[in-house]
């Protein structure tokens, strides 16, 4: 067997990663609390999230930077583990992990919330996602976004976010409302009712760009294009 020095000088990187994966698999077999990290669904979601951050965030210059340093990505992966624990009825551990995620990353996602793949939490500070919220695939969410309840109802009480949605910074979406596939929520908007697919809403309370009778519709997927401001030129009420 090669010495550590020989491995370092003889292209041993691949061998080291093989050993790490083998050791992690062995540890997971002996400690159920670690098994979540090796779940195939979690792995595929993690890869999709890495790709989302790398190609949607112009500040993200490499996959490794995201993997090591991007708290939105890290908070999302930690939530995925907490959610798996929750679905396995290991609720105390899931809630303890949620609390730790909130402390470390300033992101508070209830472990019962369902999150799809290809998610970008850009900056992420102040993001709050309630217990019965559902977030689809390829969704991008900026900082200080709240997916909350109205405070007066129990049960299924949080927003359902469709695939490809973009939610701007500081937006608040309350109640069991549906944000349609490919919709765009402008920064600072307060949304209390359903939003149709491929439309844009802005303001407090949020209004459909183009009006509710003939809302302006777009063809792109805003959750992937990250286009926050294309509506402005056609929004006659926009005044500085």
Automatic annotation (TrEMBL):
What are the UniProt keywords, alphabetically? Answer: Acyltransferase, Amino-acid biosynthesis, Transferase
User: GO terms for biological process?
Assistant: cysteine biosynthetic process from serine
The segment annotated Disordered runs over: 206-227
Q: Which GO terms describe its cellular component?
A: cytoplasm
Return the InterPro entries for the record: Hexapep, Hexapep_transf_CS, LbH_SAT, Ser_AcTrfase_N, Ser_AcTrfase_N_sf, Ser_O-AcTrfase, Serine_acetyltransferase, Trimer_LpxA-like_sf
Q: Which Pfam families match?
A: Hexapep, Hexapep_2, SATase_N
Give the Serine acetyltransferase N-terminal domain ranges.
16-78
Q: Tell me the CDD domains matching this sequence.
A: LbH_SAT (cd03354)
The record's EC number reads 2.3.1.30
- Functional pathway: Amino-acid biosynthesis; L-cysteine biosynthesis; L-cysteine from L-serine: step 1/2
List the molecular function annotations (GO) for this entry.
serine O-acetyltransferase activity
**Which PROSITE patterns does the record match to this protein?**
HEXAPEP_TRANSFERASES
Point to the regions of Basic and acidic residues compositional bias.
213-227
Q: Which Gene3D superfamilies match?
A: Hexapeptide repeat proteins, serine acetyltransferase, domain 1
Span of the secretion signal? none
Q: Where are the transmembrane segments?
A: none
Instruction: Say which family it is in.
Output: Belongs to the transferase hexapeptide repeat family.
From the Swiss-Prot or TrEMBL record, give the protein name.
serine O-acetyltransferase
């Amino acid at each position: 067997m090669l010495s550590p020095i020989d491995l370092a000088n003889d292209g041993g990187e691949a061998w080291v990663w093989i050993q790490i994966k083998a050791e992690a698999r062995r540890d997971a077999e002996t400690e159920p609390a670690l098994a979540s990290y090796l779940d195939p669904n979690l792995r595929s979601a993690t890869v999709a999230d890495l790709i989302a951050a790398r190609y949607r965030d112009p500040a993200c210059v490499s996959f490794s930077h995201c993997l090591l340093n991007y708290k939105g990505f890290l908070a999302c992966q930690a939530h995925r583990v907490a959610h798996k624990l929750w679905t396995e009825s290991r609720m105390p551990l899931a809630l303890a992990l949620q609390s730790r995620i909130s402390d470390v990353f300033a992101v508070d996602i209830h472990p019962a919330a369902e999150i799809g793949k290809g998610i970008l939490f850009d900056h992420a500070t102040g993001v709050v996602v309630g217990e019965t919220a559902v977030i689809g695939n390829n969704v991008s969410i900026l900082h200080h976004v709240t997916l909350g309840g109205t405070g007066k109802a129990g049960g299924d009480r949080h927003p359902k976010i469709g695939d490809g949605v973009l939610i701007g910074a500081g937006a608040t979406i309350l109640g069991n409302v549906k944000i349609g596939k490919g919709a765009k929520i402008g920064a600072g908007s307060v949304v209390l009712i359903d939003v149709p697919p491929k439309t844009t809403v802005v303001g407090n309370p949020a209004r459909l760009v183009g009006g509710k009778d003939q809302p302006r519709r777009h063809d792109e997927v805003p959750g992937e294009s990250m286009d926050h401001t294309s509506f402005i030129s056609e929004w006659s009420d926009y005044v500085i």
